[in-house]
Specification:
Largest sheet: 2 strands, antiparallel
Structural class: alpha+beta
Radius of gyration: 15 Å
Shape: globular
Distance between the termini: 25 Å
Low-confidence stretches: none
Helix content: 25-40%
Mean pLDDT: 91
Strand order of the largest sheet: 1-2
Length: 103
């Protein structure tokens, strides 16, 4: 579990440039039980400052575009099939249904 926390901090910095202030572990789930042993660790974080540009590491072949938007727009994009990644949709819906726990 400690490795998952460390990875979350590291990847947030590399990919978004944001420094995590508080990290909340939600759950760990298998992506497709019976087919693969891949286990995904789900987190929600609060951030306090953007230390660097983000966008990922070029040496790892990453070229990540950072989008910041209101939660209401994210939900609109789900309805419009502009956000189609299962993990992203799941976490947005979880956060939307439990927002009072994180504020």
């Amino acid at each position: 579990m400690e490795a998952a926390y460390q990875a979350a901090y590291r990847e947030a910095k590399e990919e978004t440039g944001w420094h995590i202030n508080q990290l909340y572990h939600l759950f760990a789930l298998y992506s497709s039980p019976g087919i693969t042993t891949e286990k995904l660790y789900y987190f929600i974080a609060s951030v306090d400052k953007q230390d660097q540009k983000g966008g990922g590491l070029r040496q790892e072949g990453e070229n990540i575009e950072i989008l910041e938007m209101k939660l209401t727009l994210a939900f609109e994009w789900i309805k419009e099939n502009k956000i189609v990644d299962l993990k992203t949709v799941f976490l947005l819906q979880y956060f939307g249904n439990n927002i009072n726990l994180f504020m």
